[in-house]
Amino acid sequence: MLYYALIFLVVAIVAGVLGFGGIAGASAGIAQILFYLFLLFLVVSLVVGFIRRA
Q1: Where does residue 52 fall: left (phi above 0), alpha (psi -120 to 50 degrees), or beta otherwise?
Q2: pTM of the model
Q3: How is 2-52 classified by DSSP, letter by letter?
Q4: What is the per-residue pLDDT across 1-54, written as a single tens digit (0 to 9) for each?
Q5: What is the predicted pLDDT for the residue at 1?
Q6: CA-CA distance, 41 to 54, in Å (whole number)?
Q7: Which of 52, 47, 46, 26 has the alpha carbon at shortest distance from 8?
Q8: What pLDDT score does 33 carry?
Q9: 8 A C-beta contact, residue 8 and residue 34
Q10: Which of 35, 37, 1, 32 is nearest to 24 (CA)?
């Protein structure tokens, strides 16, 4: 998931440099959502891992 967030971020940067503002904004929004989902899943995974050890 982090890989896809980085891909959308690169697409947003390239589109922004080339002047495609709508595509850049959409790609940046998708990248942000995917990054936050990645962080959420990381935290849940860590909590479940700590619970199973205890």
Answers
A1: alpha
A2: 0.79
A3: HHHHHHHHHHHHHHHHHT-HHHHHHHHHHHHHHHHHHHHHHHHHHHHHHHH
A4: 789 888 989 999 999 999 998 989 999 999 999 999 999 999 999 999 999 987
A5: 76
A6: 20
A7: 26
A8: 94
A9: yes
A10: 32
